[in-house]
Amino acid sequence: MRNVRTLIVNSISLISFANRFQSLRESVQQRSMRSITVVTAIMLGAAPALGDDDLGSRAMDAVEHGHFSKAIRFLEHIPAEQRTHDEYHLLAYSYFRARKLDHAQALAEELVDKSPSDDESILLLGDILAAKGEWEKALPLYIKSCEFNGAPAERWLRVGQAWQALGRPEKAGQAFDEHQRQLSESR
Question: pLDDT tens, 59-81?
Fold first, then answer.
């Protein structure tokens, strides 16, 4: 567990970690220690060690292997009042990848309403709206997701893509330039 904590601190910004750590603390109070592993794995983008008794870890494994419908089934078996924020996010993502965009959008909007500082949920909602062709709604979400400290430069590519889809190539070029500028600064 110490290695995972060290990896978390080294891998993500301290501000993001503090926000997620609060979510983890609440999760521990509500669920077994197994939830810590699932939530930490989601934060790191890695698959947790699986246990047969944990629907969250089964869902994470299904997502890691591209089985989004299976992940949805696992996550829907967790009572809504017992799902962690990260499990809701994983469910919205699974709906998105399974092309159940209306379900995904409803969950992502709820996540953004409950946690307006969760840049990953903001980005997911933007991706869902873009997949539905609602670029004018996706664009401000993409821009907002870029404004968080430590936001990856790659998010500017989504901003550029949205501007391009809206027929504004000059704005798209500015977004792509910002992506390149941030990449060169991070080196």
Answer: 888 889 999 999 999 999 998 88
